[in-house]
Amino acid sequence: MARPKNVPGAVPTRVRILDAAEAVFAEQGFDRARLADVAERVGIRRPSLLYHFASKDALYEAVVQRAFGDLGVVLLGMLGDTGELESALEGLVETFTGFVDGRPGFAALVLREFLDGRGGGQVLLSQVMVPLLDQVVAEVDARMPGGQGERVRLALLQIASTSLLRSASGDLRGPLWGSGPGLDKDFLRRMVLED
After folding, report:
1. What is the per-residue pLDDT for 7?
2. Could you say which of 34, 122, 158, 166 is the most buried, measured as most Cβ atoms within 10 Å of its Cβ?
3. Mapping DSSP to helix (H, G, I), strand (E, B) and coil, where does residue 194 land?
4. Please, are residues 105 and 26 in contact by the beta-carbon 8 Å criterion?
C-alpha cells in the first residue's frame, strides 16, 4: 500500500502522534501508557508510530521537549515584548496560566513526574525545565534594581506550582479556587516588587 501524500492544511502525522502521546502520558503516566493506545488515538497502527519514534522513551522525550519548547517560546516571546517590570510580571502570570489551561495534559504530565520520581522523567524535566526557568528569572531579574534573582525564582515557582495544581484539579477547580481570576498577579507583584 502506498504511503498517502501530504494534504495541504492537514496536520502532519508526527504532530498528531505527539498530541495523542501528550494526552496518553498525562492520563496514564509513562509506565502505564502504551504505544498501541497512542497509535489508536491517531488512527494509525503501532508499526507506523514506530516509524516516527523508535521507542516509548523517544516518544516521551519528544513530548516533553515539545511542551517545554512551546512554553519557552510563549514566555520568552512575551518577555521580549514588555519592557516595564510590572507589565512583565503580569504578562508572565497571564501567559503561563493561559498556556497551562490551554494545554490540559501539560499540568498532569509535569505533576506526574514530580510525584513518580522513577525512571528518567525527572532527569528529562530537569534538562528542559530548569534552563527555561533560569532564562525567565534572568529576564525578570535584569529589569530589577540590585538583582533579586532568588526572590524572583521562588515567586515564579510558587505561581507555577499553583497554576499546575489548579489546572490539574479537574472538577475540584471551582470549589477549591473559585471562579475569579485568582491572586497570582498580586502575589507575584508583592513577592517581587515589595520589600
Report:
1. 60
2. 166
3. coil
4. yes
